[in-house]
Amino acid sequence: MNQIRLYATLPRKSAEKVAATLERALEDEGVPISAFEADADAVLWTVSLYAPADEPQRFQTTLEAALGEHGLDVPVETETLGDTDWVTLSLQGLAPVRAGRFIVHGSHDSDVPQPHEYGLLIDAGQAFGTGHHGTTSGCLEAIGEILKRRTFRRVLDLGTGSGVLAIGYASAARRKALATDIDPVAVAVARDNCRINHVASLVKCVTATGFRHRQIAASAPYDLIIANILAGPLQSMATSFARHAAPGSVAILSGLLPHQQTRICATFRAHGFAFRQKRIRDGWLTLTLEKSLTPQAAAYAADAYNSRRMDAVAAGPVTSWTV
Ligand code: SAH
């Protein structure tokens, strides 16, 4: 059946509220609703609902009512989509993404990697991580960059989603990594993707919440931990994070917004990590940190943090970038 897309473009906060109202209003009808950035700065967002084309007026009224409920007087726009195979459309929509030395592409893409690139074959599916999100591409760039400087023996990708980061690391380094996710469906997807990308013998995938898993403890301490899982969980995991990180190890953190940098850096500095690099992709921040080589430096920072001398934490002991 033909479909129409009804949409309105709004400031982000309003878009989130309208999308939530629409979800409540249409939850029994199975009408897809989306909210995504309309511009590169993510100031404006577009809220869309995809409805059967035979009842445009009813869904237009629903969207107008949702806008009205939040006091928004913006026009509803319409696009006719025709008879659509949604799976194919969603796959076609995902053009290959280049991130540093990596190109993430779907199986429908003939866009083969250049000789200097690592091709990661990830189809859109039930797990996060196709390379299209600024956090994923930021992490891939950071991984490519750090591999130019160092090699690692024990690597953990915490919150692996589709497995994209562990697969990227293992493809480039040809070394082992442990990939974990709280979501068993993501772990199954990651396992499949490892097989498809010929790194199943290098990447082990397990279901785990945070650092709580026998396998995670067994392979610690890590000299590279990658975690793309948002500021809140990262902050609350900082102590376990540090406990599992070897002196001199590297942490690549993402899922962060630029204004969260100071808070995350202060927390991790208190656990012995110094700031090394940042990159912002599509408004998302990815940090590269390095854990102090000396236990004394780490103890100093923890002590300063515990006594809430945040100025001392911020000034902290300086370690050098180990090449
Ligand atoms: N690493 C992928 C996916 C990031 S999305 C990429 O960079 O694209 C974040 C993933 O972290 C999700 O798959 C989510 O299920 C997982 N996650 C969230 N909280 C977690 C936790 N406490 N422990 C383990 N995994 C977690």
Q: Mean pLDDT across all residues, rounded?
A: 86
How far apart lie the N and C ends?
59 Å
Main β-sheet description: 7 strands, mixed
What radius of gyration results from the CA coordinates?
22 Å
Uncertain spans: 309-323
Structural class: alpha/beta
Strand order of the largest sheet: 10-9-8-11-12-14-13
Shape: globular
- How much of the sequence is in beta strands? 25-35%
User: What is the count of β-strands?
Assistant: 14
Ligands in the model, by name, code or SMILES, are: S-adenosyl-L-homocysteine
Order of helices and strands: EHEEHEHEEEHEHEHEHEHHEHEEHH
Q: How helix-rich are the residues, as a percent range?
A: 25-40%
The total count of helices amounts to: 12
Sum this structure up briefly.
The chain has 323 residues and is α/β, with parallel strands linked by helices.
What does it look like?
- The chain is of the alpha/beta class and 323 residues long.
- It contains twelve helices and 14 strands.
- Helix 5 (164-173) links the parallel strand 8 (155-158) and strand 9.
- Residues 309-323 have low confidence and may be disordered.
- It binds S-adenosyl-L-homocysteine.
- S-adenosyl-L-homocysteine (SAH) binds at residues 127-129, 135-136, 139, 158-161, 164-165, 180-183, 186, 209-210, 228-229, 233.
